[in-house]
């Protein structure tokens, strides 16, 4: 743990409480006195019972055996957050995931925003609104199928409860890493308007770009002001019939301007690490075509060439510096527009019957910019009598290997459509969710709640500036007919326009327009839930306790559907930027569940037993696809004295496979695999190769795969079984009476996910089979030759693989101190709030029996985004004596990490350069202020990343998952500079 987080000042730790409301609190949150609500959005009963997130039992002194982190809705305003994911990602338990800062690409931006607790993946974090499940957000990408928090009406959020650790016994599948519950404001009466605007300011002075600037390359420098974000929301609510009913309507509009990677010096260049340090080069911005010439008899590559700019129509040897620089062709912040419209209502007919309902609508339109499309190493036929070829090109490509003018050469062509500019994926999500329910008290100590919920997310994607591979192949076949150059297929394909790749600036606008395509994808996800529960107390309990036993029982039915429809260009693999193709996916499943909880106060108000209670819960689920599962929890709390509470729990959580994991279309593709059983002198023994399906006759007779490109099968797997996770947590909470208002918490967590649903690299599957005999059923060899090509392949669909385990310690402290009590006079109040996480372990086993490797303290090509051992945030606020003015600051700390290739663990060790060995510790400082103007207006403003710190850079981030943004990790680190914002709230 770093010195800054070692808590050397014990009183500082004891001071922590949020200025307007505690932003991180491990105790049950304090409820507003004028309009109390519980975690399910219900008004407490006349007895004052409440419900905390993580349980359905109503209790007058409800606490939780699991640590609860609470962020107030006010902090959304204080941070100037127009994207809730930006706020969530500041929590030390949360890791970056889908969001507005993701770069476009195959694993990049999706136009959604998701939550990833403990870095276990967004699919293992359950998102709730008022205790009810939020539907999935995207049918196209498995990385974005989790709930899209763009649906959350930010201005209506009262608080955000975060419970880490398994909660499947209470809420069902997906709650392996934990639950995030957005609790909305209730009984709103009046009219409120809120407007906010912000922008980024950044001084481009990163030394990494100095060499490129000195070489005259167009790298931005100096001050930039960009990335404007504006939002406006209107809320209207009315209590009626003497408070028995309420109707609240909400509407908001948000617009975010794009920021290109070319607008930041550190993201403009392609970054590479070398012995002398990082190099930053823009390479070529036009990328002339590359031609990889082959021997017509053997197929062996005999050289790679590109156009010689000094002659314009001859070829020279291709150099690395000829490569295209895609660094400045993306957006570091995608342009985005979003509309939310919601209505909430409830009416209490009697104590026994209250009807409630809600309707939520969201429309998000994102412009996801992707680098210019290209054709990469595609075998094409080039006719030797092509009129665009110069004499020297004809000789090099054809004549030198004995091809006549009537023949064609097979050439591996690479071409980047740079002049067309970036592709734009215009992605739209339209979501709506409706709830209708009844709740009430049917006895003095019993409460019921029954509701039906329907949600649907519709998806539409249109990508421009793509290339049709079929049209490109047609355009390359040019002939001279009567002095006019036309396509060889002109007679049957009159729209074809020949393309000239063989001369500098030879491509005409009409040729480029012919090969370019606009491609489409559509789809939807749909969810229906019918749920009913009863909670109350049994009227009796332990003779040593004054409170009775509390229980909750319920049943739930859930049905989910997926439909994804790419157009014919995708499904026929005719999209250059996605040459593996995309295919229709349809499927559904349903689950029937029953559950129960019990909370037993054992001892109360006795010596050494201020309170002792135990609780348990169980949920049985029957999935139409995955079969039966059981989740359970058991926990206890013990307060030997009022100042100290000890807690612990053990939970078995489950996650059923999601729709994409089940029904994603299976298809064949190629993968880079080195087969240790190929060739005349195999690296593996005959016995080892026999495990992978090689016969005695085939051994030593398997021809090496061309370019080491073997077959692989990817997609969903309808035979998947649910994941099972075991969660242990133990903690202590101290509220010392001699430090009034102080709460200090320490909690240990351990989460182990078994039968992990994931994909496994084909090379790992093959090597693991040969070494240990594990996963050999995933290898299908060509029955005739024993090779992994043609009808041979490695199955890399989703499978139930090895395990994932993480453990650590959460530290929290909150307190509030009136300065006048210390110094005298009226000096206002100081509130501090601290939350930190020490990650002790993050272990991965790819396949059962395979070696285990650790990613805690590492980042890189295998471990992905950084998993530092220590992260924290500390909030400090001062509020004036009259409460009309407040000013505060936040210190966010992210600990150092090392390149995963520096680890000695199997699958991690590798070659790296010393300059790329480490990401240093990073601290960010934020300031905020708010002032009341009269009784109706509040003005606020602030600065995040006050010192304008650049993110730490690495050459090992480029292909590490959806949060990598070229040379840095978006979301984990502030990547656009200093954010300045101002806002106003008006109440009437």
Automatic annotation (TrEMBL):
Task: Keywords in alphabetical order, please.
Answer: Cell outer membrane, Membrane, Receptor, Signal, TonB box, Transmembrane, Transmembrane beta strand, Transport
Q: Name one GO cellular component term.
A: cell outer membrane
User: Per its UniProt record, what InterPro entries does this chain match?
Assistant: Beta-barrel_TonB, Beta-barrel_TonB_sf, Plug_dom, Plug_dom_sf, TonB-dep_rcpt-like, TonB_rcpt_CS
The UniProt record lists the TonB-dependent receptor-like beta-barrel domain at 420-946
Q: For this UniProt entry, which residues form the secretion signal?
A: 1-25
Q: Region entry Disordered: which residue ranges?
A: 26-49
Q: Where does this one sit in the cell?
A: Cell outer membrane
Motif segment (TonB C-terminal box): 971-988
Q: Where would I find the TonB-dependent receptor plug domain in this sequence?
A: 63-179
Say which domain of life the source belongs to: Bacteria
Tell me any Pfam family this protein matches: TonB_dep_Rec_b-barrel
Q: How does it sit in the membrane?
A: Multi-pass membrane protein
Name where it mostly resides.
membrane
Is Cell inner membrane one of the keywords? no
Of which family is this protein a member? Belongs to the TonB-dependent receptor family.
Put simply, this protein is called TonB-dependent receptor
């Amino acid at each position: 743990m770093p010195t800054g987080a070692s808590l050397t000042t014990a009183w500082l730790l004891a001071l922590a409480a949020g200025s307007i409301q505690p932003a991180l609190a491990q105790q049950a949150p304090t409820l507003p006195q004028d309009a109390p609500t519980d975690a399910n959005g219900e008004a407490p009963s006349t007895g004052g019972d409440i419900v905390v997130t993580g349980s359905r039992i109503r209790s007058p002194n409800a606490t939780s055996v699991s640590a609860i982190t609470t962020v107030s809705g006010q902090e959304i305003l204080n941070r100037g957050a127009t994207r809730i994911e930006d706020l969530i990602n500041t929590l030390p338990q949360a890791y970056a995931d889908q969001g507005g800062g993701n770069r476009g690409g195959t694993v990049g931006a999706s136009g959604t925003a998701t939550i990833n607790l403990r870095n276990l993946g967004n699919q293992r974090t359950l998102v709730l609104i008022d205790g009810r499940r939020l539907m999935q957000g995207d049918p196209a990408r498995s990385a974005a199928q989790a709930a899209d928090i763009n649906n959350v009406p930010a201005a209506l959020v009262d608080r955000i409860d975060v419970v880490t650790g398994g909660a499947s016994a209470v809420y069902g599948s997906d709650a392996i890493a934990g639950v995030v519950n957005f609790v909305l404001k209730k009984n709103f009466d009046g009219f409120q308007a809120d407007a906010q605007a912000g922008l980024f300011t950044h001084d481009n002075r990163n030394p990494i770009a100095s060499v490129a600037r000195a070489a005259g390359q167009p790298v931005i420098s100096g001050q930039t002001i960009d990335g404007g974000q504006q939002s406006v929301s209107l809320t209207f609510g009315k209590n009626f019939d003497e408070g028995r009913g309420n109707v609240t309507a909400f509407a908001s509009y948000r617009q975010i301007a794009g920021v290109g990677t070319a607008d930041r010096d550190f993201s403009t260049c392609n970054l590479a690490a070398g012995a002398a340090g990082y190099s930053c080069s823009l390479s070529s911005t036009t990328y002339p075509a590359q031609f990889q010439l082959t021997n017509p008899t053997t197929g062996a590559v005999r050289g790679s060439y590109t156009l010689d700019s000094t002659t314009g129509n001859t070829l020279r040897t291709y150099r690395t510096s000829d490569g295209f620089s895609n660094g400045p062709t993306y957006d570091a912040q995608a342009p985005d527009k979003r509309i939310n419209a919601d209505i909430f209502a409830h009416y209490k007919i009697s104590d026994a019957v209250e009807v409630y309902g809600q309707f939520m609508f969201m429309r998000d339109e994102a412009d996801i910019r992707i680098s210019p499309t290209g054709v990469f190493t595609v075998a094409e036929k080039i006719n030797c009598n092509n009129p665009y070829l110069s004499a020297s090109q004809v000789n090099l490509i054809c004549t030198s290997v004995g091809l006549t003018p009537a023949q064609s050469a097979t050439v591996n062509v690479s071409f980047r459509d740079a002049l067309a500019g970036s592709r734009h994926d215009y992605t739209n999500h339209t979501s709506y969710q409706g709830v209708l329910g009844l709740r009430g008290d049917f006895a003095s100590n019993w409460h019921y709640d029954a509701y039906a919920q329907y949600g649907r997310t519709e998806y539409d994607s249109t990508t421009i500036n793509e290339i049709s591979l079929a049209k490109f192949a047609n355009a390359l076949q040019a002939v001279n007919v009567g002095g006019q150059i036309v396509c060889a297929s002109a007679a049957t394909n009159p729209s074809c326009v020949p393309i000239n790749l063989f001369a500098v600036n030879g491509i005409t606008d009409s040729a480029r327009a012919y090969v370019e395509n606009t491609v489409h994808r559509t789809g939807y996800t749909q969810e229906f839930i019918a749920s009913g529960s009863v909670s109350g107390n049994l009227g009796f309990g332990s003779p040593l306790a004054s409170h009775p036993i509390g229980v909750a029982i319920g049943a739930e039915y859930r049905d989910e559907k997926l439909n994804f429809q790419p157009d014919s260009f995708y499904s026929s693999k005719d999209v250059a930027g996605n040459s593996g193709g995309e295919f229709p996916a349809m499927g559904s499943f349903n689950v029937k569940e029953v559950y129960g909880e019990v909370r037993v106060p054992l001892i109360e108000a006795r010596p050494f037993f201020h309170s002792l209670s135990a609780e348990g819960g169980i949920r049985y689920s029957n999935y139409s696809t995955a079969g039966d599962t059981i989740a359970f929890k058991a926990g206890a709390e013990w307060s030997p004295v009022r100042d100290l509470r000890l807690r612990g729990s053990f939970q078995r959580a489950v996650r059923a496979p999601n729709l994409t994991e089940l029904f994603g279309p299976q298809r064949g593709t190629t993968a880079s695999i080195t087969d240790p059983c190929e060739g005349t002198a195999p690296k593996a023994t005959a016995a080892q190769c026999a495990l992978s399906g090689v016969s005695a006759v085939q051994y030593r007779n398997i021809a090496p795969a061309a370019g080491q490109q073997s077959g692989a099968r990817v997609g969903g797997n309808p035979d998947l079984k649910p994941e099972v996770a075991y969660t242990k947590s133990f903690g202590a909470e101290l509220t010392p009476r001699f430090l009034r208002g102080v709460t200090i918490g320490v909690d240990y967590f351990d989460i182990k996910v078994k039968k992990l649903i994931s994909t496994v690299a084909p090379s790992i599957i093959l090597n693991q089979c040969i070494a240990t005999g594990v996963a050999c059923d995933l290898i299908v060899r060509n029955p005739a030759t024993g090779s992994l090509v043609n009808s041979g392949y490695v199955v890399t669909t989703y499978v139930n693989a090895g395990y994932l385990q993480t453990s650590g310690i959460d530290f929290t402290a909150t307190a509030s101190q009136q300065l006048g009590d210390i110094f005298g006079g009226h000096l206002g109040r100081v509130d501090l709030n601290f939350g930190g996480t020490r990650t002790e372990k993050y272990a991965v086993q790819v396949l059962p029996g395979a070696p285990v490797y650790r990613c805690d303290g590492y980042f890189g090509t295998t471990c992905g985004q950084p998993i530092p051992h220590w992260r924290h945030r500390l909030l400090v606020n001062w509020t004036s004596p009259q409460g009309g003015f407040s000013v505060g600051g936040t210190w966010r700390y992210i600990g150092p990490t090392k390149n995963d290739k520096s680890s000695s663990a199997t699958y991690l060790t590798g070659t790296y350069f010393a300059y790329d060995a480490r990401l240093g510790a990073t601290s960010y400082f934020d300031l905020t202020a708010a002032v009341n103007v009269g009784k109706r207006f509040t003005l606020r403003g602030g600065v995040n990343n006050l010192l304008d710190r650049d993110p730490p850079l690495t050459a090992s981030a480029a292909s590490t998952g959806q949060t990598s943004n070229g040379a840095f990790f978006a979301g984990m680190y502030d990547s656009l500079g200093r954010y300045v914002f101002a806002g106003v709230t008006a109440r009437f």
